[in-house]
Amino acid sequence: MSDQLTPLLAELDAAIASVGLPVRGEALERAWSLTVESPPSDEFREGVRRVIEQSVPEGELVLLVTLRARRGREAELAEATAVFVSASRQLPGVLGSALYRSSADPLTFTLAERFEGRQALERHMATEYFRRFQLIQGPLLAVPFEAVFYQRPTG
Q: How many CA atoms lie within 13 A of 127 on its CB side?
């Protein structure tokens, strides 16, 4: 857990609404918390599908995940994330997956992923490599990850 103060959900909702983000972080965390089950059951897969359906916009999606490594663990985080990215790229419906490291802050990484749509995201989150990464990253992170979805504007 972070030693920073946790804002009230109402404050988070207001901040998210003010910048037009389509997904509340809480919804994404709920979906990701389901990924620790192994092996994934039909009930697990249905739970992931429901959370994504309720929380994630339709159409092509871009997901940016900010990971802040514990000091001294950044090489381990980069290596674990590279394995994750490689596995993600093999899954149908994943249009891209890449890891970037901040030049201003070497402890900060951004994982950028692009999906054809909700079903591709569901398949991605139900994989063994995703579950494994969820377990590995915890001790390597200084603070909880931050994730934001973007979608291509229509019209």
A: 19
Does residue 146 have a pLDDT over 60? yes
Structure-token pair, residue 124: 């991605």
First to last CA, the chain: 41
Percent with pLDDT over 90 in the chain? 39
CATH topology of domain 9-151: Alpha-Beta Plaits (3.30.70)
Amino acid at 40: P
Whether the link from the prior residue into 39 is cis, omega within 30° of 0, is yes
Residue 125: which residues within 8 A CB-CB, separation 6 or more? Answer: 31, 32, 34, 35, 48, 52
So where are the chain's domains?
9-151
pTM confidence score: 0.66
- The strand pairing partners of 98, in sequence order, are 112
Note the Cα 30 to chain centre separation in Å: 11
Tell me how far CA of residue 40 lies from CA of 89, 105, 129, in angstroms. Answer: 21, 36, 12
Rounded to 5 degrees, φ, ψ at 125 are -75, -15
Cα–Cα distance, 68 to 65 (Å, whole number): 10
Check if the beta carbon of residue 24 is closer than 8 Å to that of residue 16.
yes
